[in-house]
Amino acid sequence: MRPIVFALSGILLLAPAIVAAQQFSSLEERMTYNEFRAAGLEKLSPEELAALNAWLRKDLPAVAAAAVSTAALPVADRRGFPVSASNQGPAGDIVSRIPGEFRGWSNKQRFTLENGQVWQVNDSAASLAGVRLQDPQVTISRGLVGGWYLAVEGYNSRAKVKRIK
Are 51 and 15 in a shared domain? Predict the structure, then answer.
């Protein structure tokens, strides 16, 4: 009974290495003939090609782990800042809270949202006075012609805002 348990333990310990070895494919298998020639790899001797494939096989787990870790990085939320193709971030409205007591807004007043964004009221005509809320939910949405508007849940008033941070 012990030899069987020992053999099974050995197989289980070697399984990840066996799977990694089976998943590796050489350059010759991965590339088309034209790609292989365009990279100049046909000039390598069989020994040089074997050394290159061995190096790739050795670093494959590290490369795969790096690819997974960079894929998991969050996209920076740049909504509200001047737009370029590289900083669009997520689409849609921003829904967050203003932590603490909220007593309305006035022109040039700044709010730090629960998500860390800082917005400033940029609308001298809009005001929301006479309210007293604790941690109100707010929605900041893009206007039709551009610009961003802040609305407090439960109120039908909104103010034009610009993102500061």
Answer: yes
